[in-house]
Amino acid sequence: MNTIKSTFQKAKANSSGCLIGYITAGDPTPEATPKIADALIRGGVDILELGLPFSDPIADGRTIQDASLRALNAGTTPMRVLEIAAQIRSQHDIPLVIMTYYNPVFHFGIDKYLAAAKQHGVAGFIVPDLPVEEAADYRKAAAAHNLDTIFFASPATSKERLAKIVAASSGFLYLVSRFGVTGAQSSVSDSTVQLIKKVQPQTVGKVPLAVGFGISKPEHVQTVIAAGADAAIVGSAFINIVEQNKQNMLLELEQTAKALKTATKT
Which of 31, 38, 56, 60 is an active site residue? Predict the structure, then answer.
């Protein structure tokens, strides 16, 4: 089984960064998600994030908010997300990461849900509203089930707090490239490049650095990889294609992923 760690090692050996793709599980339907995952993986996505739909996604912009609503209206539940993960894992040997707000996991039962996630082939979790200072119980359960715990850092994170986050992170560190919420942007700002150069020395040799929020074009991917990131995270650009739900949706997803993956070459 490919782990997150081995995926980054393989990419580095091939003089490449990683492409991490995000889709909302259950959007537009639970049955469609494995087909969407197939297309992205054929296109070159190295790690796939499956967003667990939630009614109050505070870190997300309109694109992912709407995707969550579509998924919830289609009947997607926390356990259905794990079943989708298992379907994808039965066909593809790439790491799957669940991105979820803390409430669904806490309500289900932390240990119970993480145990089920491991059984369904999940490699790790991203919980954007769980600060490292309050994550002791969660981290203990994740470690018990050999799941990576991926924390966020942002432009507002102090050097002292960043050190705590890096020490607590496994899999990769998710660097939020800018203030605000998720959503495709027209360009990567100079401030993002400077942020990567500031954070990268704190992560090198400890945990891979992945950059997300607003990354949507091949030139964005090239910019963040050249600045020192180990991976680029792309979500809204893929979800925009899913939302349009055109007849050639799967082909467009595959071609978009291919162009973005090509841009990770160093």
Answer: 60
Total domains in the fold of the chain: 1
Q: For residue 179, is pLDDT > 60?
A: no
Please name the helix (run of DSSP H) or strand (run of DSSP E) that holds residue 78, with its range, or none.
Answer: helix 78-89
Please indicate whether residue 49 is annotated as part of the active site.
yes
pTM of structure: 0.94
- The CATH number of the domain holding residue 54 is 3.20.20.70
Please write the tens of the pLDDT for every residue from 236-265.
899 999 999 889 999 999 999 999 999 999
Told to judge if 38 belongs to the known catalytic residues of this protein, a careful annotator would answer no
C-alpha 226/C-alpha 229 separation (Å) is 7
State which residues form the domain around 209: 4-262
Angle at 5 between CA 240 and CA 253, to 5 degrees: 20
